[in-house]
Amino acid sequence: MARPTVVAWAACAVLTLAGSLTVGGVAAAKVRQEPRLTGAGAASSKVLTSPAGAPGEQTSLPEAVKAGAGGSITRADLDAFVASYGAALKGKNRAAFVGIADPKKPDLVKKQGQLYDNLQKIPFKSATYSVDAVDGGESTFAQGAQATVTVNFDHQISGVDKEPVEERYRWTVVRGATGLLVTDVGAPSQRRGYPAPWDSVPSLTVVTRTHVVVMADDTSSGFAKSHADALESDAEYDFAHWTGGSGTAPGFAVFLTSNRTLYQDIYDQGRDESVGVTVPMPAAPAPTPAAGTGSGTVNSASYPSSRIAVDTTHYKNVDPADADIVFKHEMTHAMIDPFEDVSGRSQQDHLWVVEGFAEWESQRMYSPTELLYDGASLHSYASKHGAPKALPTDAEVYSSNSDTSGSSYFYSHMAMRYMADKYGPEKVDQFVLYVYKHATGTMCVDDAMKNVLGTSTDQFTSGYAAWFRSSI
């Protein structure tokens, strides 16, 4: 199974309510984008852009070429050009927003118009554009004054994002007779949320509720409108059960489509085996403060928000309970993503905690006898696969073998059910919160077992196996 990022959360079979469609082997997944580290932590980040002056990328342009060589483009020119683009969006000036595109590129002009129309439908609390970096060297600018620019779109969706998050674009900018023009817009080397639904859909449907902003293409526009209230109920369900305290995401942005190619491309997550995915979004860089007021940088060791995408193909004509399970699962991931320490990597397997919690949360109201797995009762499935001998490893959860991954999700889910049965649902939340906050700790699971549950991992596993044999 391809892994689109350094750290990825794969998923397989989703449990469903008895009497409904069984979604065995279908995935509800969580993928990771690398965080943007600034300040003291920047040196250790493996995904930052190259430092200023490095070959192929720089943050300031060389001296302008002399007159007669095709004009010039300075960094100040680009900053002003990109700022005017953001001002056009904020000021609802469609002509100016679209006018950055070279009129000789009709497809680009059309896409800019579609982008403007889509963005106007999103309830942004803030939305700004800025130059992140400029690629190229002097030879580039001497050849007709052309620059390749990485542009940041820092935005915060009201009711969804705790703070601004970042999407990146790669613009090709030239100096024309009347000023700067964009001749191409594409994906930067580090996409960071590109392409978003507003970049990808000619006419985006947007439906808002208190805790959800639902976006859809024309294949799922009707589904979005008819299911918006159900998605709001799913969000309220997850929030109502959470006992881990403040700090969760305030709400969720959900994109719906039955266009498989579009689904796999959205947010550059590429989950070819999933039907639902949660993609954490990197925080936007903090503004540079005035001289003498501090560094203005924040070491973003967590994700302030996430985006959810769901392929609606499987859910348009089935019992609503099936769709609700997937949405609750993905919202669970997104709800607690802001707690996770992503500044490094743990040496201890803990994906069973992440996915098991989302599985349990999405179905905690059902007893084991009410659930199906791969078309069989949990008792039949458990009889086939046997009692767990150990907690699932990350490799098993990630496995490209659907049977291995599917059974790993099953055992992870049941481990959380055992934890809730023995220690109580509140302890489950505390346990998961501890693992998230200490996710880079060498022994994050062992420490959570000791500090939250008052046991050891070995004792927990032994008790879980005994409970499994007697309860499932």
Key descriptive features of the protein:
single chain, 472 residues, alpha+beta, four-stranded antiparallel sheet, 14 strands, elongated
Helical percentage: 25-40%
Q: What's the Cα radius of gyration?
A: 24 Å
Any low-confidence stretches, pLDDT <50, length ≥5?
1-27, 32-69, 137-143, 289-299
Q: Care to count the β-strands?
A: 14
The helix/strand class is alpha+beta
Order of helices and strands: EEEHHHEHEEEHEEHEHEEHHEEHHHHHH
Short description:
The protein is of the alpha+beta class. It has helices at 75-90, 94-98, 106-119, 138-142, 197-200, 221-241, 260-265, 320-336, 351-363, 378-385, 394-398, 402-423, 425-437, 444-453, 457-471; strands spanning 8-9, 16-17, 27-31, 124-135, 146-157, 165-176, 179-186, 205-208, 212-216, 252-257, 274-281, 305-311, 371-373, 376-377. The chain contains 15 helices and 14 strands.
Topology:
Blueprint: E1 8-9, E2 16-17, E3 27-31, H1 75-90, H2 94-98, H3 106-119, E4 124-135, H4 138-142, E5 146-157, E6 165-176, E7 179-186, H5 197-200, E8 205-208, E9 212-216, H6 221-241, E10 252-257, H7 260-265, E11 274-281, E12 305-311, H8 320-336, H9 351-363, E13 371-373, E14 376-377, H10 378-385, H11 394-398, H12 402-423, H13 425-437, H14 444-453, H15 457-471
Parallel strand pairs: 3-11, 9-10, 10-12
Antiparallel strand pairs: 1-3, 2-13, 4-5, 5-6, 6-7, 8-9, 11-12, 13-14
